[in-house]
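Whiteboard transcription, Tuesday session. T.W. wrote the structure tokens on the left side:
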């Protein structure tokens, strides 16, 4: 459909919209008032990763369109863990660890959103503020009566676990009720009228919408994004080296930049729309580049995505490092670094310690395949003792895309 509001036009044109509960109603509301909208993030690790980035960018676009983003930290729901499309229960986290993760995660949002007291300024809340205070019997009586077990069992997120005969605990089964209750509380506390999330959250979002209608008679809305996959069908953000973390203390700036630079040619346009603020006509121009020129578009993508998440200096340094490493055959300052002790280190251990391989076994296989180079020369001996003079540096490479610096102690 054709949207009239700036909000839905922006989200539609950039590829964020997969499902909407009431497109006409939300379109009309967004035309006449500031719409507070939220997305929840459970603090299961010290950093979010690129799999969360489309949600963060959606909050950013909400604010760019003049509306109010609400970031919900799952200090309460994080004690349970979302079972949606998981094969097994998440490991339960202690309250102290959850608090540490929340504090660590907060930092990244300040780079994407403007926080404050204005009508469209973002706010951050923790659902532990209301979930921790719930009394069990009153909650069952007042809220539980609005949920049908039959319907809950029909949701794909639950059905898949049961069909595979994988355990789904009563604790996890409560998650969808608590998430629905979040929407009810946010509509009361902050006038929230929109919940957004990935397509896997559709059932949970609909639950919250129905709960708000049944309990308070409030009309609220839901919007989900498409499942993000690479051109080859794999899930975006899943790499051989592990998660692509948003916090720099979890992943070096160069590795973050390089993730975007390594984008498949077919995905450049989509990623530019979703993960940068570049104007659409400029994106149209960039994605039409052919041959080696598409690499220029990938550098733009890497710079813009890194700038948003890590800052201008990180983007400049990462690009400079890439040019020195790949074009000039040198070593940029932003490459991952490993200090080699005076007695030296076995090559196989160096590959693992610097983060190129997940285990010494994997390192041995890569070395045997001829994929590992020391100072740009292929090395075939996994037990080679690598030494580096004090104050000197050597270059370690795995394949064409992973490079690091070995420094002498």
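and on the right, the sequence the group agreed on:
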């Amino acid at each position: 459909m054709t949207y009239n509001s700036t909000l839905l036009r922006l989200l539609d044109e950039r590829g964020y919209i997969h499902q909407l509960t009431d497109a006409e109603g939300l379109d009309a509301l967004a035309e006449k008032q500031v719409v507070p909208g939220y997305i929840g993030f459970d603090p299961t690790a010290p950093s979010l990763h690129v799999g969360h980035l489309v949600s963060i960018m959606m909050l950013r676009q909400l604010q760019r369109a003049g509306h109010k983003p609400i970031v919900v930290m799952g200090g309460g729901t994080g004690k349970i863990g979302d079972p949606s499309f998981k094969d097994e229960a998440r490991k339960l986290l202690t309250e102290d660890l959850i608090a540490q993760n929340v504090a660590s995660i907060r930092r990244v949002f300040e780079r994407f959103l403007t926080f404050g007291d204005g009508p469209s300024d973002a706010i951050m809340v923790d659902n532990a503020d209301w979930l921790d205070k719930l009394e069990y019997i009153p909650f069952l009586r007042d809220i539980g009566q609005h949920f049908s077990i039959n319907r809950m069992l029909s949701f794909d997120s639950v059905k898949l676990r049961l069909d595979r005969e994988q355990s789904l605990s009563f604790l996890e089964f409560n998650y969808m009720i608590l998430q629905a209750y979040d929407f009810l509380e946010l509509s009361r506390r902050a006038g929230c009228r929109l919940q957004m999330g990935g397509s896997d959250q559709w059932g949970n979002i609909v639950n919250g919408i129905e709960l708000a209608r049944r309990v308070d008679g409030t009309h609220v809305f839901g919007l989900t994004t498409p499942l993000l996959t690479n051109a080859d069908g794999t899930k975006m953000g899943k790499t051989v080296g592990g998660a692509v973390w948003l916090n720099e203390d979890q992943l070096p700036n160069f590795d973050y930049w390089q993730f975007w630079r390594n984008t498949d040619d077919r995905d450049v346009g989509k990623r530019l729309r979703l993960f940068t603020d570049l104007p659409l006509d400029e994106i149209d121009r960039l994605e039409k580049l052919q041959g080696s020129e598409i690499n220029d578009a990938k550098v733009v993508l890497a710079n813009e995505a890194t700038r948003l998440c890590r800052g201008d200096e990180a983007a400049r340094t990462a690009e400079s490092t890439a040019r020195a490493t790949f074009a000039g055959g040198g070593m940029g300052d932003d490459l991952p670094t490993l200090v080699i002790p005076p007695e030296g280190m076995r090559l196989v251990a160096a590959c693992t310690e610097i983060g190129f391989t997940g285990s010494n076994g994997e390192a041995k296989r890569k070395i045997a395949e001829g994929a590992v180079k020391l100072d740009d020369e292929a090395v075939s001996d996994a037990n080679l003792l690598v030494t580096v003079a004090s104050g000197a540096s050597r270059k370690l490479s795995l394949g064409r895309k992973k490079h690091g610096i070995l420094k002498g102690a």
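Someone added at the bottom: Residues 48 and 180 are 22 Å apart (CA to CA).
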